[in-house]
Amino acid sequence: MSSAAAPWPTEIKYSKAARALSIAFDDGSSFRLPAEYLRVDSPSAEVQGHGSAQKQTVAGKRNVEIINIEPVGRYAIRIVFSDGHDTGLFSWTYLHELGRDQLKRWSDYERRLAAAQLGRDG
């Protein structure tokens, strides 16, 4: 078991107007995670595959919205997106990683889109 405690959320809010999830953690960090970013980096097998070499580049999600957020035990949330995607369980640790690494992950995503000649609009 790790000596460092896993980050624990102290506040989770969704802004429909901004299409972004704001989340604050007990370590003092807070992040604004756009719905598009959460959708294209969903922890689901559909996006992540079954290994790093199988990660899928999901295009055309610029206008995706979050339509529901469901608690899963005391460790995660399930996010239901407007395109019907709802299979990823976003653990507190994963949400913290998404926030902490947002600039790098988003840059990697845009690079993968360009390499595949795909766009954020479809």
List the helices and strands and how they pair.
Layout: E1 9-15, E2 20-25, E3 30-34, H1 35-40, H2 45-48, E4 66-72, E5 76-81, E6 89-91, H3 92-100, H4 102-115
Antiparallel strand pairs: 1-2, 2-3, 4-5, 5-6
Give an overview of the whole structure.
The chain is an alpha+beta fold and 122 residues long. Helix content is 27%, strand content 28%. The chain is built from four helices and six strands, in the order βββααβββαα. Strands 1-2-3 form a three-stranded antiparallel sheet. The chain has a three-stranded antiparallel sheet with strand order 4-5-6. The model has no long low-confidence stretch (mean pLDDT 93).
What is the number of beta strands?
Answer: 6
Kindly report how far apart the N and C termini lie.
Answer: 43 Å
Adjacency order of strands in the biggest sheet: 1-2-3
Strand content: 25-35%
SSE topology string: EEEHHEEEHH
- The helix count comes to 4
Average predicted confidence as pLDDT: 93
Sketch the major β-sheet: 3 strands, antiparallel
Which ranges are low-confidence, i.e. pLDDT below 50, for 5 or more consecutive residues? none
Give the oligomeric state of the chains in this entry, treating copies of one chain as homo and distinct chains as hetero. Answer: single chain
Helix content estimate: 25-40%
Structural class: alpha+beta
Task: Work out the radius of gyration.
Answer: 14 Å
User: What shape does the CA trace take?
Assistant: globular
